[in-house]
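Hi Q.,

Before the meeting this afternoon, I wanted you to have the magnesium ion prediction in hand. No need to reply - just skim if you have a minute. The sequence and ligand are here:
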Amino acid sequence: MKKNNRVKKINFFHKQLLSVVAINILPLLIMSGLLYSNAITDYKANLLETMDNEINLLVSTSKSALLFDDQDAATELLSALKSYTSTRYAQLYDANGAVFAEYKRPGQKVDMPIEQFNGEIIFRNNNFYLSKAIMMDEDHLGIAVISADTNSLAMQKSHYILVTGWAFLGSLVLAYLLNWKIQKRFTAPISELIGLVGYVAKNKKYHKRLDGGRHDEIGDLILGVNTMLDTIETHEQQLYNRANYDELTQLPNRHLLMERLDHAIDIAGRNKSEIAVLFLDLDRFKVINDSLGHGIGDELLLQISEKLVGILRKSDSVSRWGGDEFVMLLENIEQVEDIELIVNKVILELSKPAIVSGHLLHITTSVGIARFPQDGKDSLSLLKHADISMYQAKSQGVGQFRYFKSSMLNKSVYRLRMEMELHNAVENEDFFLMYQPQLAIDGETVVGFEALIRWKLEGRLIPPDEFLPIVEEIGLMHRVSLWVLKQACQQNISWQNAGLPPIKMAINLPPSFVMHQQCFNNIASALAGSGLEPEYLEIELTENTFLNARSTAGPILQSLKDLGVSIAIDDFGTGYSCMSYLQDLPIGTIKIDGSFINGLGLSRANEGIVQSIITLGKSLNMTIVGECVETEQQLNILRDMECDIIQGYFHSKPLDFDEAENFLTRKQKPLRLRSIKN
Ligand SMILES: [Mg+2]
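Predicted structure with the ligand bound:
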């Protein structure tokens, strides 16, 4: 294992270089071996040839010395051999085998008896021995003997070992250097690639690329890696965008907002500066989505996000929190006016109508503001407090803003409890209906009832204007409205079944219900389910219903009218100022808002308004209902103005089912439906 680790630590370049050099060693060794062996063989052959020549020379020159028995001449001939350092000794024997003359190198002695010579070369103990017969024609004159040592051969051997060793080493170094150079050329880009891959794997950064430009396999490899990194980088960018940006508006999403907010808090904490978190929620956006579809809702959100970005200062940012909620982060706040300047701009810009696919859309926004450091020390509490302030703003009406106050926290806990209780109430159908009679102006004839939803929590009656906005916000309004619709139809038919004269039942439906694609089917099946004739049902709508969706409302209301259901405008005079819808839509009844009725007898301007509404309604052949009539004076004025129907405490408060039945029985004089005109 340790060995493996060591091998791994040697880099690719050196591994390859060492492999190539190792492969080079074998042929170099063989070459060196051959060189050495050849040199030695040559040297040995030369040495033997020299000695052979010498003995031949000795044989031919010593003949006369032997013939004339001249020992001095023979000794002189032999001593000439000392010029050959290898010569150990040389001897001349006469024909009788006796030593005739001899030469011995100092320190050498004769160590081979003449009997052992056989004419061949004898090797023994690093020495060699030659002998040759000396002949004169047929006569045997004697024998010449030479012995030489092989010391010079041994010297030559070490010399050759040294030479071939150096040659081997030199070749090895040359091979190493040449391979180093060549490998460098080939492995440098691979090493760079390995370095790049290592860098990418370690740092998860995909922006680096290698310079390609080679037209070989390595060039292809670099191109492949670069392309792969391009793809990964694109995917990474997409992943990052998906994780941090809203797909529709391309604004930062809540994840990135939290990061930025944390960062802003850090900096503000260090610099002792202030920041503000603005929580924006569009008012009645759901109605647009429900009635005109998500495509138009999305387009509107896009336009709004562009408006918000346009309002920002350089140091600010805006994120989409989700749905129709946005969060703006304002940094370096020097004075509260800085915030208000921007908030007012936001509310004003967003309240300007937007045109989406030919629809003129009116939208407003509610804003909650929390500031650092006074309203929260961390991002979560700042956002929570801005959100709570936004709800407070919304509860004050549309297009408002509120700064966070700690007293809001109690309200927020209360609201949370209300939400929970309302979920239970919807599940258990804990609501009930009260019925407020509507009488003809003569005060005698009951023409109908308005069904009003009521809810009791732990025995306490919660006002509808307190719980209905929450029902709407938590998305339960549709279910609640369906319940009201079915309940009102059931109870109305039960009076008819009990033999009471048929009267009209009015129910209040929110814009979101009317704009729902299933609106017609829901109403038709509630009527069919109960057996109530459509002419005994009236739906009351507020002007806001037509604010953003007249083109959608028209066909739905027309089909309801065709079915026989009547349509009334509730709280008339308080909403949308453009009244052309009165002409375009199949509206049969106008209910003048209670605030105008309350002012009757107190303000001439008010009376002028009421008279105008009545005149307008009558010119459009509509029935006029005065709501919240509490005094005889109000009744008389309305009678003088030729108002058709009266509803209010003057005649009756809202009644429970039994009381309403008694009221109807008592007044039993019905009834042509609702209006004298319809
Ligand atoms: Mg009403």
